[in-house]
Amino acid sequence: MDVIDELIANNEAFAASLPAQHLDVRPRRRLAIVTCMDSRLNVFAALGLRDGEAHVLRNAGGVITDDVIRSLAVSQRRLGTREVMLVHHTDCGMQALSDDGFRAELQEATGVAPAFAIESFADLDADVRQSILRVRRSAFLPHRDLVRGFVYDVDTHALREVHVDGQ
What we know:
The protein is an alpha/beta fold and 167 residues long. The protein is built from five helices and five strands; from the N terminus they run H-E-H-E-H-E-H-H-E-E. It has helices spanning 3-17, 43-47, 66-77, 99-110, 124-136; strands at 31-36, 54-59, 83-89, 147-152, 159-162. Strand 1, helix 2 and strand 2 (54-59) form a beta-alpha-beta unit. The N and C termini lie far apart (52 Å).
């Protein structure tokens, strides 16, 4: 049995253990969370969220890319979210990359330069601040005033807020 077959079996047991229910597509807390894809972050458990309470958008580094802005625009304009929480974390793999080095690695392996930005970073707090500003400056998002950024410590599981200067 491969890993995916094992997960399908896990899902069958999970689905059988719960009653059928329908949750509204609009998150009850009117919240969108942007975070990293890191497998050590259990966002729902760490924040005490339940199903149907928030949108969770994940990518490498939890960075604000054009695709994240696209998803936030849908989340806000069609699905009622009003607040954005950004959660980066300690010991992030994106801190171990360089944009140029990884881009060259991909091009060497495939013969094609990637069209997407790598978005690596060295300074965790600076990247959180940059992400906050990218959300606040996006004309596509009608709700940009309630945007806050945090760093999640993967060892202690505690959040630390990162502020943009003057706020």
